[in-house]
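New to this. Comment on this protein:
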Amino acid sequence: MSVFDIDSITAEFDRRYRIKKSVNAAFNLLIAVSGLCVFLYTTIVDRHRMAERLRYMTFCSTLFTSVVSLFTFIVCIMEAAKRTEVTNRAVYFLRLSSALTESIVLAVVLFGLTPFVPDDPDVRTFVGIMTHLVIPPMTVLSFIYNEAPVGRLKPLEPFFGTWCITTYAVVMLVLFGSGTIPSELAPYSFLDFEHHSVLYPAACLIGIYLVGYLVALGLSKLNMRCSWIWFRGVGRSGRLGSK
């Protein structure tokens, strides 16, 4: 029968845990710095007012993701130092909401590049590339492979991943629906109430929420499956041999 060296297994587990947390900390710091660069470039180089830019879901999601990533960076440093995992569900859903929002941004951009949608997503400028094609996949990968799972989600809990989307939708629908912001400034076609019937934005929102729910569920399942890749083979590394 195989004999295990518990001390060796524990040491290897701790080593990989520190590596995992260090990688996650570096990833999240990179995301936060990337978000900061986007806002600095927008205000200093492009000379846009940030209040105007925040009508775009992309900029709201980048701001939200940058703040969450900075918070996650600090948490990872603390976890690595204390060798303990923060499994608070509120923290988990913040990260899930960030990953989901960036997934939706990426999906909307790709969908907007098709000839079926009258949108023209920016994938050519520095800001467009960073917010549409760089930050979203980094955020999703960080969540899937590094976030501590909280177990199988209850049927309605994937909707907790739509916190950022819901806040944006409520604010923008009120502003554009009431005419506070004119329709010609609508960043997306489904917010242009002047040129589309109410059925079009309703259908778009239902589609986004349906996709959001499924994506949140999928991200959570992938997280449970993939987060343990860091510790694969730890038990085998602690075998001393057979008796």
About this structure: The beta strands are 2-4, 239-242.
